[in-house]
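User: Just a sanity check before I run the rest of the batch. Below are the C-alpha coordinates for the first item. I only need the designed sequence back.
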Protein backbone atom coordinates (compact mmCIF):
# COMPACT_ATOMS: atom_id res chain seq x y z
CA UNK A 1 0.00 0.00 0.00
CA UNK A 2 2.86 2.40 0.76
CA UNK A 3 4.16 2.24 -2.83
CA UNK A 4 0.69 2.89 -4.23
CA UNK A 5 0.31 5.84 -1.88
CA UNK A 6 3.62 7.27 -3.10
CA UNK A 7 2.61 6.72 -6.74
CA UNK A 8 -0.67 8.56 -6.15
CA UNK A 9 1.15 11.48 -4.54
CA UNK A 10 3.62 11.69 -7.44
CA UNK A 11 0.81 11.50 -9.95
CA UNK A 12 -0.99 14.37 -8.22
CA UNK A 13 2.22 16.43 -8.27
CA UNK A 14 2.20 16.16 -12.05
CA UNK A 15 -0.69 18.62 -12.16
CA UNK A 16 -0.10 20.70 -9.03
CA UNK A 17 3.03 22.30 -7.61
CA UNK A 18 2.39 21.82 -3.89
CA UNK A 19 0.51 19.26 -1.80
CA UNK A 20 -0.20 19.67 1.91
CA UNK A 21 -0.21 16.84 4.42
CA UNK A 22 -3.96 17.27 4.91
CA UNK A 23 -4.65 17.17 1.17
CA UNK A 24 -2.61 14.00 0.82
CA UNK A 25 -4.48 12.38 3.72
CA UNK A 26 -7.80 13.14 2.05
CA UNK A 27 -6.58 11.98 -1.36
CA UNK A 28 -4.73 8.73 -0.55
CA UNK A 29 -5.70 7.96 3.05
CA UNK A 30 -3.46 7.33 6.02
CA UNK A 31 -2.52 9.13 9.21
CA UNK A 32 -0.42 12.32 9.32
CA UNK A 33 2.60 10.23 10.34
CA UNK A 34 2.06 7.85 7.40
CA UNK A 35 1.82 10.73 4.94
CA UNK A 36 4.92 12.39 6.36
CA UNK A 37 6.87 9.13 5.97
CA UNK A 38 5.75 8.96 2.33
CA UNK A 39 6.86 12.57 1.80
CA UNK A 40 10.27 11.85 3.35
CA UNK A 41 10.78 8.75 1.23
CA UNK A 42 9.93 10.64 -1.99
CA UNK A 43 12.29 13.45 -1.04
CA UNK A 44 15.12 11.03 -0.19
CA UNK A 45 14.63 9.39 -3.60
CA UNK A 46 14.92 12.84 -5.23
CA UNK A 47 11.42 12.52 -6.66
CA UNK A 48 9.97 15.58 -4.89
CA UNK A 49 11.03 18.28 -2.45
CA UNK A 50 9.97 18.13 1.21
CA UNK A 51 8.90 21.55 2.51
CA UNK A 52 7.20 22.84 5.63
CA UNK A 53 3.59 21.65 5.70
CA UNK A 54 3.78 19.36 2.70
CA UNK A 55 5.66 18.38 -0.42
CA UNK A 56 6.58 20.29 -3.58
CA UNK A 57 7.00 19.09 -7.14
CA UNK A 58 10.47 19.18 -8.64
CA UNK A 59 10.73 21.96 -11.23
CA UNK A 60 9.86 21.09 -14.81
CA UNK A 61 12.23 21.90 -17.62
CA UNK A 62 11.49 24.22 -20.49
CA UNK A 63 10.09 21.32 -22.48
CA UNK A 64 7.43 20.62 -19.85
CA UNK A 65 8.77 17.14 -19.15
CA UNK A 66 9.34 15.59 -15.74
CA UNK A 67 12.55 13.88 -14.56
CA UNK A 68 12.98 10.25 -15.57
CA UNK A 69 13.52 9.24 -11.94
CA UNK A 70 10.06 10.56 -11.09
CA UNK A 71 8.32 8.93 -14.05
CA UNK A 72 10.05 5.61 -13.38
CA UNK A 73 8.28 5.29 -10.02
CA UNK A 74 4.79 5.71 -11.45
CA UNK A 75 2.82 2.49 -11.95
CA UNK A 76 5.94 0.31 -11.63
CA UNK A 77 4.03 -2.96 -11.33
CA UNK A 78 1.84 -2.15 -14.31
CA UNK A 79 4.83 -1.22 -16.45
CA UNK A 80 6.56 -4.47 -15.49
CA UNK A 81 3.50 -6.43 -16.67
CA UNK A 82 3.43 -4.54 -19.95
CA UNK A 83 7.10 -5.26 -20.61
CA UNK A 84 6.70 -8.95 -19.82
CA UNK A 85 3.79 -9.20 -22.26
CA UNK A 86 5.62 -7.19 -24.92
CA UNK A 87 8.46 -9.72 -24.88
CA UNK A 88 6.14 -11.98 -26.91
CA UNK A 89 7.16 -9.83 -29.87
CA UNK A 90 10.90 -9.98 -29.15
CA UNK A 91 12.61 -11.86 -32.01
CA UNK A 92 14.96 -14.61 -30.85
CA UNK A 93 18.42 -13.66 -32.03
CA UNK A 94 17.04 -10.64 -33.88
CA UNK A 95 17.86 -6.93 -34.01
CA UNK A 96 15.80 -4.68 -31.74
CA UNK A 97 15.48 -0.93 -31.25
CA UNK A 98 14.56 0.16 -27.71
CA UNK A 99 13.63 3.81 -27.35
CA UNK A 100 14.34 5.16 -23.87
CA UNK A 101 11.43 5.44 -21.47
CA UNK A 102 10.31 4.41 -18.00
CA UNK A 103 8.18 1.59 -19.44
CA UNK A 104 10.57 0.28 -22.10
CA UNK A 105 13.30 0.17 -19.44
CA UNK A 106 11.48 -2.81 -17.92
CA UNK A 107 12.24 -4.81 -21.08
CA UNK A 108 15.92 -4.88 -20.14
CA UNK A 109 15.12 -7.23 -17.25
CA UNK A 110 13.89 -9.92 -19.69
CA UNK A 111 16.33 -9.71 -22.60
CA UNK A 112 18.74 -12.61 -22.94
CA UNK A 113 20.25 -12.28 -26.41
CA UNK A 114 20.05 -10.69 -29.82
CA UNK A 115 21.28 -7.25 -30.81
CA UNK A 116 19.94 -4.21 -28.94
CA UNK A 117 20.22 -0.71 -30.39
CA UNK A 118 19.12 1.83 -27.79
CA UNK A 119 19.27 5.52 -26.98
CA UNK A 120 18.73 4.74 -23.28
CA UNK A 121 21.64 4.81 -20.85
CA UNK A 122 19.46 3.17 -18.20
CA UNK A 123 18.72 0.21 -20.49
CA UNK A 124 22.49 -0.19 -20.94
CA UNK A 125 22.97 -0.01 -17.18
CA UNK A 126 20.48 -2.80 -16.46
CA UNK A 127 22.04 -5.02 -19.13
CA UNK A 128 25.53 -4.33 -17.74
CA UNK A 129 24.43 -5.39 -14.27
CA UNK A 130 22.75 -8.55 -15.54
CA UNK A 131 25.57 -9.68 -17.81
CA UNK A 132 28.67 -8.33 -16.08
CA UNK A 133 30.15 -11.83 -16.09
CA UNK A 134 29.62 -12.35 -19.81
CA UNK A 135 26.96 -13.48 -22.23
CA UNK A 136 23.84 -11.50 -22.99
CA UNK A 137 22.95 -9.43 -26.05
CA UNK A 138 25.13 -7.31 -28.28
CA UNK A 139 24.44 -3.67 -27.36
CA UNK A 140 24.85 -0.75 -29.75
CA UNK A 141 24.60 2.85 -28.50
CA UNK A 142 24.24 5.42 -31.31
CA UNK A 143 26.03 8.29 -29.54
CA UNK A 144 25.02 11.94 -29.55
CA UNK A 145 23.93 14.27 -26.77
CA UNK A 146 22.33 12.92 -23.58
CA UNK A 147 19.17 14.37 -22.12
CA UNK A 148 20.15 13.95 -18.45
CA UNK A 149 16.61 14.41 -17.25
CA UNK A 150 14.90 12.20 -19.78
CA UNK A 151 17.42 9.34 -20.25
CA UNK A 152 17.62 9.63 -24.03
CA UNK A 153 20.37 10.33 -26.53
CA UNK A 154 19.44 12.82 -29.21
CA UNK A 155 20.76 15.24 -31.79
CA UNK A 156 22.34 15.05 -35.26
CA UNK A 157 24.92 12.40 -34.33
CA UNK A 158 22.25 10.11 -32.87
CA UNK A 159 20.04 10.53 -35.92
CA UNK A 160 22.93 9.97 -38.35
CA UNK A 161 23.82 6.69 -36.64
CA UNK A 162 20.23 5.43 -36.52
CA UNK A 163 19.74 6.04 -40.24
CA UNK A 164 22.30 3.29 -40.89
CA UNK A 165 20.52 0.57 -38.89
CA UNK A 166 17.52 -1.67 -39.60
CA UNK A 167 15.69 -3.67 -36.94
CA UNK A 168 13.18 -6.51 -36.74
CA UNK A 169 11.16 -4.63 -34.12
CA UNK A 170 11.13 -1.35 -32.22
CA UNK A 171 9.77 -1.03 -28.68
CA UNK A 172 8.82 2.50 -27.68
CA UNK A 173 6.44 4.58 -25.60
CA UNK A 174 5.08 8.13 -25.71
CA UNK A 175 4.12 10.87 -23.28
CA UNK A 176 0.53 10.87 -24.49
CA UNK A 177 -1.87 10.19 -27.33
CA UNK A 178 -4.92 11.55 -29.09
CA UNK A 179 -7.27 10.39 -31.83
CA UNK A 180 -4.66 11.02 -34.52
CA UNK A 181 -1.60 9.42 -32.96
CA UNK A 182 1.17 9.55 -30.38
CA UNK A 183 2.40 12.71 -28.65
CA UNK A 184 5.61 13.84 -26.97
CA UNK A 185 7.06 16.99 -25.45
CA UNK A 186 10.02 17.96 -27.67
CA UNK A 187 10.68 17.98 -31.42
CA UNK A 188 14.38 17.26 -30.84
CA UNK A 189 13.62 14.04 -28.96
CA UNK A 190 10.91 12.65 -31.22
CA UNK A 191 13.25 12.73 -34.23
CA UNK A 192 15.13 9.78 -32.72
CA UNK A 193 12.12 7.54 -32.18
CA UNK A 194 10.71 8.48 -35.59
CA UNK A 195 13.85 7.04 -37.18
CA UNK A 196 13.55 3.87 -35.11
CA UNK A 197 9.92 3.48 -36.18
CA UNK A 198 10.75 4.11 -39.83
CA UNK A 199 13.59 1.58 -39.87
CA UNK A 200 11.76 -1.30 -38.12
CA UNK A 201 9.73 -4.13 -39.61
CA UNK A 202 7.44 -4.33 -36.54
CA UNK A 203 6.50 -1.37 -34.34
CA UNK A 204 5.37 -2.10 -30.77
CA UNK A 205 4.22 0.62 -28.38
CA UNK A 206 3.93 0.15 -24.61
CA UNK A 207 1.54 2.46 -22.76
CA UNK A 208 0.33 2.38 -19.17
CA UNK A 209 -3.27 3.39 -18.56
CA UNK A 210 -2.37 7.02 -17.72
CA UNK A 211 -1.11 7.79 -21.25
CA UNK A 212 -4.62 7.93 -22.71
CA UNK A 213 -5.92 11.51 -23.05
CA UNK A 214 -2.55 12.94 -21.93
CA UNK A 215 -1.41 16.04 -23.84
CA UNK A 216 1.87 16.40 -25.71
CA UNK A 217 3.35 19.33 -27.60
CA UNK A 218 4.23 17.52 -30.81
CA UNK A 219 3.09 14.45 -32.71
CA UNK A 220 5.53 11.56 -32.56
CA UNK A 221 3.76 9.33 -35.09
CA UNK A 222 0.27 8.69 -36.48
CA UNK A 223 -1.57 5.51 -35.47
CA UNK A 224 -0.94 4.08 -38.93
CA UNK A 225 2.75 3.73 -37.99
CA UNK A 226 1.97 1.54 -34.94
CA UNK A 227 1.50 -2.21 -35.40
CA UNK A 228 0.93 -3.31 -31.79
CA UNK A 229 -0.19 -1.45 -28.65
CA UNK A 230 0.54 -3.25 -25.37
CA UNK A 231 -1.49 -1.71 -22.55
CA UNK A 232 -3.69 -2.48 -19.55
CA UNK A 233 -7.42 -3.13 -19.56
CA UNK A 234 -8.85 -0.11 -17.75
CA UNK A 235 -12.61 0.40 -18.31
CA UNK A 236 -12.27 4.14 -18.93
CA UNK A 237 -9.89 3.47 -21.82
CA UNK A 238 -11.94 0.81 -23.62
CA UNK A 239 -13.55 3.29 -26.07
CA UNK A 240 -10.00 4.23 -27.09
CA UNK A 241 -9.18 0.60 -27.85
CA UNK A 242 -11.93 0.43 -30.45
CA UNK A 243 -10.83 3.70 -32.04
CA UNK A 244 -7.19 2.57 -32.17
CA UNK A 245 -8.11 -0.80 -33.72
CA UNK A 246 -9.80 1.04 -36.61
CA UNK A 247 -6.36 2.36 -37.55
CA UNK A 248 -5.12 -1.21 -38.00
CA UNK A 249 -3.37 -1.44 -34.62
CA UNK A 250 -3.41 -4.74 -32.74
CA UNK A 251 -4.31 -4.02 -29.09
CA UNK A 252 -2.76 -6.47 -26.62
CA UNK A 253 -3.94 -6.28 -23.00
CA UNK A 254 -1.56 -7.24 -20.21
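Assistant: Here's the designed sequence for the first item:
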Amino acid sequence: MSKRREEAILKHLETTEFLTTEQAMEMVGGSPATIRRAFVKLAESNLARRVHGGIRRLPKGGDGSLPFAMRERWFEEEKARLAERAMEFFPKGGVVFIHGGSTTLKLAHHIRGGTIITDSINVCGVLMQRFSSGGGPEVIVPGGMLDLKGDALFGPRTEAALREYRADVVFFSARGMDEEGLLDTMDTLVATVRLMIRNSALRVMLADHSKFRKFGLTQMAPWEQVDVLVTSDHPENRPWFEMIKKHGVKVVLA
